[in-house]
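Re: export button greyed out
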Amino acid sequence: MLRISLIGFGGVGKAFMELLYNKEAFLRKEGLSLQINYILGSKGGIYDPKGIDHRKLFSYLKDGQYIADYPYGGSSDINFETMMRNGDIDIMVEMTPTNKETGEPGLTHIRRALKAGIHVITANKGPILLRYKELNLLAAENNVQLGIGCTTGGALPSVNGGLMDMAGAEILSIEGVLNGTTNYILKLMEEKGITYGDALKAAQAEGIAETNPSLDVDGWDTAIKMLILTNVLMNEEKTLKDVTVEGITGLTPEQVMDAKSKGIRYKLVGRTEKVEDIITISVKPELLEAAHPLYGIDGKNKAVRYTSDTLGDLTLIGGASGVVTAAASILRDLINISRGYKFSRIEI
Amino acid sequence: MLRISLIGFGGVGKAFMELLYNKEAFLRKEGLSLQINYILGSKGGIYDPKGIDHRKLFSYLKDGQYIADYPYGGSSDINFETMMRNGDIDIMVEMTPTNKETGEPGLTHIRRALKAGIHVITANKGPILLRYKELNLLAAENNVQLGIGCTTGGALPSVNGGLMDMAGAEILSIEGVLNGTTNYILKLMEEKGITYGDALKAAQAEGIAETNPSLDVDGWDTAIKMLILTNVLMNEEKTLKDVTVEGITGLTPEQVMDAKSKGIRYKLVGRTEKVEDIITISVKPELLEAAHPLYGIDGKNKAVRYTSDTLGDLTLIGGASGVVTAAASILRDLINISRGYKFSRIEI
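Workaround output, generated via the alternate export path:
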C-alpha cells in the first residue's frame, strides 16, 4: 500500500484523484495499491489514515463545499505540519500555485518531504526552475525520487524522453515547441491573415489565452520549460538570465502570410545548443520549413526534439493539454518510480 | 562492477564494445563500471575474468583474425556452456543471427541465462517474436530484467516510448513506419517517377536494400516489429498468422505520382488497433496526408505513434539506422536497468 498526500487541490489535483479511482483495476494489475491519506488546501484539509473515499468526497464537493469542512476527516487545523508530524505517507504530490521568484510554498514542501524520506512528484514549475539540482541531490541522498515530468509540457514525455529514451547518449541540443497558446494564436494569424492583437482576442474569447497572456506570448512559459529541460538533461544550472527571450507579439500579418506563401511557418521555438561546451538558450519565433519535424505541431500538441551523440535524433510529439492529461503525467512518474526507476541519482 | 558477456560478435557486437570503451568516462559518472568477460562466436570465443582489453583485441582483429585465436584468453573450447558453468556474469547481450521460425540458438541462450539470474539484453528478434511472454515472466520470476529495445527499430525508443513514456495509460493503437529500406524505395519512386523494380535496383546498388529484399519490401520486417510492440505493450500473444501483410511491390509509378500530385504519399504502415477488445494488426501501403505525423518519415528515420486513454497521442520519430545506434540502443537498456527500472514484472 502506497500512501499519498495531495498538496493543492485544484483542477489537476481533483483529476488525479479521479484518475486513481478510474484506474484502480489497471493499477492493481501493476501490483499497485494506492490510497490518498491527505488532501491539503490553503485553509485546511482532510486527513484519513484509512484513505479518503473518492465517491463520498466528490459527492460532498459538488455543491461547492470546501475540503476543510468535509465531515469525514476535514478540518481547518489539518495542514502540511500535521502530515509531517504524523509521518504516514510514502508519496507527496505537490501542486500548489507556482511562484517563479521564490518557489514558495512548494520549495519548502518539497525540501522537507524529501528530507523525511518521502517521494515527491510535482507539477509545480517554480521550485524545479529555481532549485532542481539541490532538490534532486536531496532526493538521491535520502533514497527517494523526485518526479518532475509534469512541469515541462504535461502529458508530453519531454523529461522521460531525455532521461530514459536517450539514456546513455549525451544530449547535444534541445528544440521545443512547448506552448499551446502561441501555437493557437499563430495558427489563427496564418489561417485568417489577421493581426496578432485580433488573434489574441479570439484566443481569449475561447478561453485558450489568459486575460494576462504575457507568460505565454512573451515566451516566458517556453523559456521556463526549456530551462528545466536544459538543467535536468544537460546537467546545467542555468537561470532565466541565461535565456534570450523574444515573444510572438511583434509578428505582423504580412510576415506570417509571406511565410505561408512560401510554405514555411513561424513557430515559437525554444532552443538549447551546446557548442564546444558553451550552452546557449533562446526562445523566439523561428521560420520552420515543412520538412522540419516541429513544423506541423499545432492545436494542443507540443513537441520536443533532441539531438545526441550516439542515439541520433529523437522527436517526441504529443502532450494534449488539460487537467486529465496533466494528472496522467503525474501518474506516469508515480508508476515509473514504483517500477524502480531512479530519477534521482548521485553522480560520481 | 557489472560483468558482461557478448553472444555474437558481428557489427553490432563490435560497435557495442567500442561504445563501452568510448563512453567510459560518461558511464563512470553514472556510477557504472562495466567489463566484458566473454565474447562468444559460433566457433569458440574469448574469456578473461579480468575483462577483455578493448584496444588489444581490436588491434588483433583488424587483420581479419578470429576471436578464438586471440592469444589472451581466446579458445575454440570457450562457448555458452563455459560461461554458464563459470557463472561469473551479470548481463548477457544476445546478438546471434535471428531465426524467426525456431528462435534458436538465441531462445535457448536467453532462457538459460534468465533462469541463472542473469539480466539479458537482446537485439535478436526471433526469440522475442516467438516467446516474449514466457521469457519476460521467466525474467520476473528470477528477479532479473529482459531488455528488448533494440528489436523494434534500433535507436528509435519504440518499446521505451510505449512502456515508460505511456506508463499508466492504456495503449489503444500503434501505428508505425518502421522499415528504412521501403522508406528509401518509396522516396526514390516519388522523386524520380520510376518503377518499383528500378527503385529497388538503385537501393541495392547503394547497399540499402539486400540482395533478397523480401523481408523488407514484402512487409515482414514491419510485421515482426509490430507484433513485438503489440505483444509487449498491449499484453497480447499474437503471431504472424494474426497479421494481414501487404508489401510495396505492387505499387505502380502512376499510383505514386498521382498521390504526389495531390500532396499525399504512400508509406508502408504497420497498424494495430483495439476496438471493443478485438485486436487487428495490418501492414500495408497507406496513403498519408501531409498533416499526418508519419508523413515526413524518410531516409533512415523510423517512427511510431501511440494513442492512449489518458495520455493522449504520442509520436516518436528517430532511430537512425546503423551499428553504432543499435549498440547505443543496447546500452540504453543496460543503463535503464542499472537505474533500477523493472522491464520484467509479474502482473497480478
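The first strand of chain B starts at residue 2 and ends at 7. The button fix ships in the next patch.
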